[in-house]
Fold this protein.
Amino acid sequence: MLNEKIKKHISKLHQKKYREEFCEFLIEGVKCVNEALDCADVDIIVIDGKRRDEPQMKNIIEKANKKDVQVIFCARTDIGDIKTTETFSGVLAVADTLDIIFEDLRDGKPIIALEKIKDPGNLGTIIRTADWFGLYNILLSEESVDPYNEKVVRSTMGSMFRTKIFQSKKIVHTLEQLKKDGYTIIGLSSEGASLDSLKLQSKTVYLFGSESNGLSKEAREKLDSILSIPGNGNAESLNLAISAAICCYHISL
Amino acid sequence: MLNEKIKKHISKLHQKKYREEFCEFLIEGVKCVNEALDCADVDIIVIDGKRRDEPQMKNIIEKANKKDVQVIFCARTDIGDIKTTETFSGVLAVADTLDIIFEDLRDGKPIIALEKIKDPGNLGTIIRTADWFGLYNILLSEESVDPYNEKVVRSTMGSMFRTKIFQSKKIVHTLEQLKKDGYTIIGLSSEGASLDSLKLQSKTVYLFGSESNGLSKEAREKLDSILSIPGNGNAESLNLAISAAICCYHISL
């Protein structure tokens, strides 16, 4: 059974400040919990007691037992406090946040960098897309949405456990450091040469601005070049996740 | 002032059945209302009375006056019934639905076809992205989300007025008709040859399956070929709007 202490602990993890304090976050849903068991350090799994006999729950219980992860069954009355979605999907995990440091990103492979990204769905989708294309290095600026936010976690569809997400405290300093290491910094914007003209090379950062304000003046000063996604239609702009996806596709061609 | 009769009419338009009955839909926000005034038949504009002196509202009022569109100012107490977003953006329009028939799609240019798409954000983003790449022909199957759904309209960012969205009553019949007209039907799926191998030609339909079930068996029987988006990472799938965007980019290269 889910005791009050654990229930309270889980409900605290809905808030960023507690996720940071405990270095833990919540993962909901069969697919994501399975991925977490494969790739992350899971502390506890909570399963809706009424659904414990469903085959997919049984699989999770078996996998958790093999890894010595505690499984707790909860009552329907507990769900309101712990669920991360409107309709609880029956299983939730508490896992340790991933400990990605700057060094992890500096392996020479492309880096997808995001400045002040605000929309959790956009960030989750970008992580999932980057994982599809085998681009595992993701750099987030200060003031970006928390990658351990429940909606981000959900929309990565498990990909967050396979990518390396480094949260910079000051992205212009991180970019400076990468430039010293021989990285080229390419900004993506609505102006600039066409993405088609890009000559692929190792050690490249692809930097995207925020949904509302684009690239900041300070970040622009660090760029080696600016590229844009060619379009011959009339829309004023593309959604950020769409721009990032097209860039990921192009650089993986 | 906003009288009860108009307020009631607007609040009905939150529901699909009334949108279909009245052939009208709601558009909220400065950008979308401006686009609607440029491209659609707008019946009424409602503006938050307390914001009527803001420059962007003044622009809308001026444009509406030139087009003989009635502008009504509403009280803060009216907003709850009419708004389409959590935080009302200050301006809302009632416009006639666009009257797109099958013939409008048969101009030989590429058609982006979507089978049972359910997520309004995905549909809106696909419309916006297609407009960016100058791909204006969009075919929706039966049981797809209503393109006049408020969230779809909002996420098109005005692009829905520039694209031609045809809602088929039975997509397999529509595909058959297009094949008779000489169209090639290409399905996008996780299996199939790489999108890179695509030889561009006129009269092509690019068909995408639903978020949860992919392409249906019946639709698959109409395909001339199946293509997939190449990825060398580990994510199991791509988000539908992302797949469609990469396809749009590729065919407009």
